[in-house]
Write a structure and sequence with these properties.
Helix content: 10-25%
Number of strands: 8
CATH topology of the largest domain: Structural Genomics Hypothetical 15.5 Kd Protein In mrcA-pckA Intergenic Region, Chain A
Number of domains: 2
Strand content: 25-35%
CATH class of the largest domain: Alpha Beta
Order of helices and strands: EEHEEEHEEEHHH
Structural class: alpha+beta
CATH architecture of the largest domain: Roll
Strand order of the largest sheet: 5-4-3-6-7-1-2-8
Largest sheet: 8 strands, mixed
Radius of gyration: 17 Å
Shape: globular
């Protein structure tokens, strides 16, 4: 029987914590979980990514490319293959240049309710860092500069992000509307 997993994912080593809590079917493929994470966190699916569990790497396999030759094709692996009991964990790494690591924790296993459309975001906090901002150090510098209009980099960040960028913004309802779209709202490359 397919169960519902309540998972929490959070970007590692960032304060304040940037996180999401989701309900997903236990039989969701890792390739689809990638799309759900992209949409719910606010990423744009512009970079390579992988899941890591017990030193095994799970990612998209391309027969025409040697990258990831020692990894497992995640299009054949269900979330329940890696997360089987409460508090089981794995890592989702996105953008190897910036090195965004998300800890994914199975918080609860609950009976599925046929009335609920899965996946569903039920909580979260904070806006995701912008793509290509330079990882944790670049993001922290960006937040510092945005609080200091006299900084020489301020205008450049405003031009890049717009003057309405709000690091604290997260809207669970908007996220759920996106998750209902084709490919869970994830941009296709």
């Amino acid at each position: 029987m397919i169960a519902t997993y309540q998972i929490q994912m959070a970007l590692k080593e960032i304060k304040p914590k940037i996180w999401r809590r989701l309900l997903i079917p236990s039989n969701l493929l890792l390739s689809d979980l990638h799309k759900v994470i992209q949409t719910s966190m606010g990423w744009d699916n512009l970079h390579l990514h992988q899941f890591i569990k017990n030193k095994t790497f799970y990612t998209a396999k391309d027969p025409n490319d040697d990258w990831g030759a020692d990894s497992v094709d995640y299009k054949k692996i269900k979330v329940s293959d890696l997360l089987q009991k409460e508090n089981d964990r794995m890592i989702y790494e996105y953008d190897f240049g910036d090195g965004w690591e998300h800890e994914v924790i199975l918080e609860k296993i609950i009976p599925s309710e046929n009335k609920i459309i899965y996946p569903q975001c039920i909580d979260g906090k904070m806006n995701c860092p912008p793509e290509d901002c330079g990882g944790i150090g670049g993001f922290e510098n960006m937040l510092y500069v945005l609080k200091n209009p006299d900084d020489e980099e301020y205008e450049g960040y405003i031009e890049w992000l717009g003057d309405d960028y709000d690091h604290a913004y997260f809207n669970v309802n908007e996220t759920n509307e996106d998750l209902k779209l084709k490919n869970y709202g994830c941009f296709e490359l």
